[in-house]
Amino acid sequence: MASNKFVTLVTLVMILLPTIAMATDFIVGGDSGWTTGVDYSNWAKDKTFHVGDALVFKYSNPPHNVFKVNGTGFKECVKPTANDQAPLTSGNDRIELKTPGNKWYICTAANHCADLGQKLVITVMDAAPAPAPSSAVRGIIFSGYQVFAAAVVGVFLAVAI
């Protein structure tokens, strides 16, 4: 009897798990990190950023920092005024992408942004769609209540085993 409950639990997990969208952490600049001499436009061009994903800026401080700026601040490499957000300086900064649209980041150390290209612009899309179900469960459509009921049954079976 316990083995039947286990099989049922595993089946529920296999059905529900693929429907969970996973967020992605992007290490800005890849192995190079956040530094001078990296083409951040090239780094970002083949990536799709979604609400819920995060940018991780890895760098040495000093000299580097991360400022979130607007389009003008990005174009002119100008750090925000005192009323805006403070710079990030930990050397391992994680920024969750909470809203869709364009996002701009610069380093304000010396001439890093203007002359050395240490700046990043990305476009964030709405939340990533859930992955397509596997062929084993294709065609099965769950409403919110069915998913909730399946989760409750799964918890009950896990406790009963």
From TrEMBL:
Segments crossing the lipid bilayer: 140-160
Signal peptide: 1-23
GO terms for biological process, alphabetical: response to symbiotic fungus
Coiled-coil stretches noted in the UniProt entry, renumbered to this chain: none
InterPro entries in alphabetical order: Cupredoxin, Phytocyanin-like, Phytocyanin_dom
Family matches, as PROSITE patterns: PHYTOCYANIN
One cellular-component annotation, GO: plasma membrane
Membrane association type: Single-pass type I membrane protein
Annotated localization: Membrane
One term of GO molecular function: electron transfer activity
Keywords assigned: Copper, Disulfide bond, Electron transport, Glycoprotein, Membrane, Metal-binding, Signal, Transmembrane, Transmembrane helix, Transport
Gene3D superfamilies: Cupredoxins - blue copper proteins
Domain Phytocyanin: 24-126
Name this protein carries in UniProt: Phytocyanin domain-containing protein
Organism placement in taxonomy: Eukaryota, Viridiplantae, Streptophyta, Embryophyta, Tracheophyta
